[in-house]
From TrEMBL:
GO biological process: maintenance of centrosome location; maintenance of Golgi location
Highest classification ranks of the organism: Eukaryota, Metazoa, Chordata, Craniata, Vertebrata
Record family assignment: Belongs to the TBCC family.
UniProt keyword annotation of Hydrolase present: no
InterPro entries per record: C-CAP_CF_C-like, CAP/MinC_C, CAP_C_sf, CARP_motif, TBCC1, Tubulin-bd_cofactor_C_dom
Protein name: TBCC domain-containing protein 1
Positions of transmembrane segments: 113-130
Chain's role: Plays a role in the regulation of centrosome and Golgi apparatus positioning, with consequences on cell shape and cell migration.
PROSITE patterns attached to this UniProt entry: C_CAP_COFACTOR_C
UniProt source species: Camelus dromedarius (Dromedary)
PANTHER family: TBCC DOMAIN-CONTAINING PROTEIN 1
GO annotations of cellular component type: spindle pole centrosome
Residues annotated as domain C-CAP/cofactor C-like: 320-465
Amino acid sequence: MDQSGVLLWVKAEPFIVGALQVPPPSKFSLHYLRKISTYVRTRATEGAYPRLSWSTWRHIACGKLQLAKDLAWLYFEIFDSLAVKTPEERLEWSEILSNCMSEDEVEKQRNQVWIYMYVYIYLLVIDVVLEHMFIIYFLFGQLSVDTLQFLLFLYIQQLNKVSLRTSLIGEEWPSPRNRSHSPDLTEKSSCHNKNWNDYSHQAFVYDHLSNLLELLLDPEQLTASFHSTHSSLVSREAVMALSFLIEGTVNRARKIYPLYELALWQPLHAESGFSKTSKTFSFCKLEAWLRACLTGNPFGTSACLKSGKKLAWAHQVEGTTKRAKIACNTHVAPRMHRMVVMSQVYKQTLAKSSDTLVGAHVKIHRCNESFIYLLSPLRSVTIEKCRNSTFVLGPVQTALHLYSCDNVKVIAVCHRLSISSTTGCIFHILTPTRPLILSGNQRVTFAPFHTHYPMLEDHMARTGLATVPNYWDNPMIMCRENSSTSVFRLLPPCEFYVFIIPFEMEGDTTEIPGGLPSAYQKALGQREKKIQIWQKTVKEACLTKDQRKQFQVLVENKFYEWLINTGHQQQLDSLVPPAAGSKQAAG
């Protein structure tokens, strides 16, 4: 370990949210990314560097890498969703898009011109002149991203690249770092999702560190074959970009610093290789320092499961033998590092609206025959290997991903939905981006968002999610084995019912945000008319008192039979906790 007491680790969020759970395009290889890195620097005045505009990225992706425009936009937009923006900024962009009447108008908004200026501020501190450059952007519609960070984002898509050896024997090439696996809540090694495996994050960055640094080098610091030399120098801007992936602390203090602050810290100049004269880093020294200080993420999944706080949210139902396992790190983790992991919720109802969940990355694993309500604003949600269950979620600010789930219903407002290896799942969603159908899915059903709870609109505002645009019915199919629309269907209006959340909470939301599509609203109206006609028929039948009793018993018996046959009886039974009332969700 480094003598300075500096600890560095790989951030979890770029991998949990940013690494798409599908093999990347072949053109995202290091060879092509190095070419892009050189190209953007030669187009600095054309919206390519230090900020990469959508129009320039579209030109590179579609014209040079031969990617489809939808795919180019997908990666650009996913990276933008990781950027630090206020909810008001995201809502403003949603409003701009909602006023567009066609895809051409949407594209026009993306291609508006950025106007920017550079402001230099000089500070005199103990006879040392520090130069700070601030770039102020005035936005007229177009999105723009940090160029160097975007290159790193494209590179880490290799996390889910399919290895021939892995696909044949189910493991990576032997390596000491790969022998440790992220434990689940039963302390067994069963985590195959690399996006949530912090050991995989650390191993990936450690193994690819030279390539990541070379990708950030100025062209004059590289050989003709795009490799570094012993004399290569790394710019401060490159180290700032690498802070997208790495952060750390000093002497195990609670305060977290971005990588560039630690690398520029005066006592560490000798080790990090920073030169005050050239204001650059020695490539070799910087790489050696990073490798020496890199350690496990203290706020990652493994730390959460090993030393996180255990929660008892789900009550035990009579007759079940498995006990739900739920852990969180919110008592020690700063904002943006919060995690909640739950596993083995079996034949239970779990309902929670809690500060513990606010802004947390949530993983739900191996839950079966359960009803889970997480009614708080969430950062991201991953649902993995669950069966025969219903999940009702508060607004998900970034990504909602399902993997290897069967007969699951998900009800959520989310920025993005992606699914892989699911069978017979139903998604009632409200989302400003196209749902992603990845590989291995069968019998997927999409339906409009159809519920509400009192704090929903407030939670949507806190996460920057609006009711429009809403692309719930326009999924993007990314699986090669089945590119036809037969892999999914839209729920027929005749099968549509609203969903009632059976908990009391304080708040102002009294109806479904944004309402329902006209066809579904019409179907509900027609069903309501049938009920009114039936009620009128019963009333006009002029039944005697005994006949009314017999009729009531018949209806109740049929209703009870329907509850049992549909499985709703289990849900009703589980809504009555041992010692708490219906306000369980607000605890």
